Inverse folding.
C-alpha cells in the first residue's frame, strides 16, 4: 500500500516538472526578509514545523551510506548525460538534489544551461530508479537520529502543531526514506512540504536561496492541504510564481519553525520569515550554526532532539499540552 502511494506521489511530483519547465529556468528571486518575534508559545492557530531530512532526522552510516540515493544519481547521470560519475566529486551538504546534480555536471564540463534543460528528465530518472528498489533498499546505510521518533510523535499529538518535510530531496525520495525508517506515519496528514522537485533556480553559488523557496512553498501548501484561513483545497498551480516573496506566508499559521542541521537551513528559514531551529547532529557544530545569525532571537540551536520537552519549548510549543492531549 505504501509503495503504491509512493509511486502515485512520483507521478504527481514529476508530471508538473515535465509540463512546467519554468520551475527550472535560471532566476534569482529577490529575497524579502521579514523580522518576526522571538520564539514564544503559540497563540491561536497552528505552529508549522518543517524538517530537513538528511543530517536532521536521519543520518548516513557505514560503507553503504545513503547508497540508494547516490545510486539513483549515478543511474541518472549515466542515462541522461552518458556520464559515469557520482555526487561525491563535489561538496554537497545542504544543497538541493537538482543543484547537486548541476554542480556535478559542471564539474564534468557540462554547462548549467544544458543541465537545467534536462533537469526534469534527470529528476524523473532518479525517482524511477529509487522507487524501483525502495522496498528493499531505501533504508540502506541510513538510521534515524536519537530522539527523532519521540519528537515526531509528540508533535503529532500536540494540538497546536503541524509537521512536514522541507528538504532538498526529490519528494518521493524524501518520503520513501521516512517510510523505510518507520517515520512516515508520524507527520501531519495530508502530508505536504517543500522538496527539490518543486524548484531549481540554478544558483549554485548560494544554494540556500533555493531552500528558502522550499520553506515558503511548504507554508503555502500546508495552508491549502489543511484548508486553513478559508482555503478550499484547490491546487496552488505554478509554484514558481510564489517564489521570491514572503507575502501571505503567515496566513493560517500562528508561527512557522524550520528545523535543520546546516547553515543553509538557518539562512533559508530566516529569509522565508520563519524561525530557525538548528540542530548539531550533522557535520556542523552548535557554534557554527549559532554563528549564522548571532544574537538573532529567531534562531535557537540545540545539540540534539534527545530532550523532547526542551525541543518543543525551543519551537515555542508547550510540552505540557502533549500529555494533556
Amino acid at each position: 500500500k505504501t509503495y503504491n502511494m509512493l509511486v502515485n506521489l512520483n507521478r504527481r511530483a514529476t508530471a508538473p516538472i515535465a509540463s512546467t519547465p519554468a520551475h527550472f529556468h535560471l532566476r534569482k528571486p529577490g529575497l524579502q526578509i521579514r523580522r518576526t518575534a522571538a520564539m514564544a508559545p503559540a497563540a491561536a492557530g497552528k505552529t508549522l514545523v518543517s524538517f530537513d531530512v538528511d543530517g536532521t532526522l536521519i543520518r548516513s552510516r557505514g560503507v553503504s551510506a545513503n547508497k540508494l540515493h547516490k545510486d539513483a544519481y549515478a543511474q541518472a547521470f549515466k542515462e541522461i548525460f552518458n556520464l559515469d560519475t557520482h555526487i561525491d566529486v563535489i561538496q554537497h551538504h545542504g544543497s538541493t538534489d537538482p543543484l547537486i546534480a548541476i554542480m556535478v555536471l559542471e564539474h564534468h564540463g557540462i554547462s548549467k544551461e544544458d543541465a537545467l534543460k534536462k533537469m526534469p528528465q534527470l529528476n524523473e530518472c532518479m525517482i524511477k530508479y529509487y522507487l524501483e528498489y525502495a522496498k528493499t533498499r531505501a533504508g540502506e546505510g541510513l538510521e534515524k537520529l536519537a530522539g527523532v521518533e519521540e519528537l515526531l510523535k509528540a508533535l503529532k499529538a500536540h494540538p497546536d502543531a503541524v509537521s512536514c518535510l522541507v528538504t532538498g530531496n526529490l519528494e518521493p525520495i524524501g518520503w520513501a526514506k521516512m517510510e523505510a525508517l518507520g517515520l512516515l506515519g508520524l507527520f501531519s496528514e495530508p502530508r505536504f512540504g517543500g522538496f527539490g522537485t518543486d524548484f531549481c533556480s540554478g544558483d549554485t553559488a548560494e544554494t540556500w536561496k533555493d531552500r528558502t523557496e522550499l520553506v515558503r512553498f511548504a507554508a503555502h501548501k500546508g495552508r491549502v492541504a489543511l484548508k486553513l484561513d478559508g482555503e478550499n483545497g484547490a491546487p496552488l498551480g505554478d509554484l514558481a510564481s510564489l517564489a521570491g516573496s514572503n507575502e501571505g506566508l503567515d496566513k493560517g499559521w500562528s508561527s512557522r519553525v524550520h528545523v535543520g542541521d546546516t547553515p543553509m537551513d538557518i539562512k533559508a528559514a530566516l529569509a522565508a520569515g520563519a524561525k530557525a531551529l538548528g540542530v548539531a547532529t550533522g557535520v556542523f557544530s552548535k557554534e557554527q550554526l549559532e554563528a549564522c545569525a548571532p544574537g538573532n532571537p529567531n534562531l535557537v540551536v540545540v545539540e540534539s532532539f534527545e530532550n523532547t520537552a526542551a525541543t518543543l519549548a525551543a519551537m515555542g510549543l508547550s510540552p505540557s499540552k502533549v500529555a494533556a492531549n
Q: What stands out?
A: Residues 10 and 172 are 6 Å apart (CA to CA). The first strand starts at residue 46 and ends at 51. The beta strands are 46-51, 58-60, 142-144, 161-166, 193-194, 253-260, 275-279, 299-302.
